[in-house]
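ok so dumb question maybe but i'm new to this and my supervisor (M.) told me to 'just get the structure for D-alanyl-D-alanine endopeptidase' and walked off. so i did the thing. is this what she meant?? sequence i used:
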Amino acid sequence: MAAALTGGGLSPSTALAASATSASSKAKAKTKTSKKAGSTASRGTAAAKARGKSPVRSAKAVPARTVAKVSPRKSVVVAVEPAKASFGQMYGLHRTEDPLDLKSSVALVVDQETDQILLSKNSNAVLPIASITKLMTGLLVTEAQQPLDEVLTITQDDVDTEKGSHSRLQVGTQLTRGEMLHLALMSSENRAANALGRHYPGGLSAFVQAMNAKAKLLGMHDTRYVEPTGLSSNNQSSARDLAVLVKAAYQHPILRELSTSTDASVAVGRRQLQFHTTNGLVRNPSWEIGLQKTGYISEAGRCLVMQAQLAGRNLIMVLLDSAGKYSRIGDAERIRKWLNSEASPVLDAGMRP
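this is what came out, is it supposed to look like this??
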């Protein structure tokens, strides 16, 4: 099995500047502006004296030096922050060619029943997996058989300090464990996933230890977890390991049901909040999906794992480090069409593991 890849640094920010105006033009503009401002200020003072009031500066009386600074002819320097590269981009994995022209740098399709590999692209590369992490979170909660009707409370400990991500589950929100599990799997709710980990026997640290122990038990030797949401880029795995995780999670009906749900409504205080799936394919009648999870952080790119019935077979699909908001969905469609074509399941030489 290929060794885990390690990351590198990012390039510095690029600065763009507009062309500067000539010195003589700026001097003329400043002189003209100063005269105009001085005239305006004088008129304002005279009017104030006529009204018997002290000559205070009005909002419209702008000092000449301020006007000169906001002049549209003044050069402006704008700092542009470059897009943060994913680990796969830094490793050069996107340069790997494949006959399907996938936008994901890592891809794997495995027969669920026979473990036959139908498609493989960089499937041993170890990368951040973002919210695919929540599939392991759901698996542990389910196997611990903790009561799903127990009410859990979102606290400040569940607020994301890693990425500063937004959540509609405010501190103090109370939902049942089952609702938290539903939102974590379907809508990838980070605070819900963290709350599930905190309420595990022994707390969050015990939960993370259990995540890694379960990965080891399943034979996921390229996998490491440091928290239950996937916000940390230190949660890493390979496509081959994730296929094992999908197969294990699929054995639990509740994980199949909740992960493939399209919508959910939960009561938060006096309000009913609507949540939706992060995977549009579950609404597509062309797909028969038994279990799924999406993920995204900049270090991981767009990720997707699924169990689906394609070409008359139960298959497991893993797509990691896809560039572009909808490219992982496009890649899944390319694979589906390929599997339903006359070429399936014959692999091009470039796609063989």
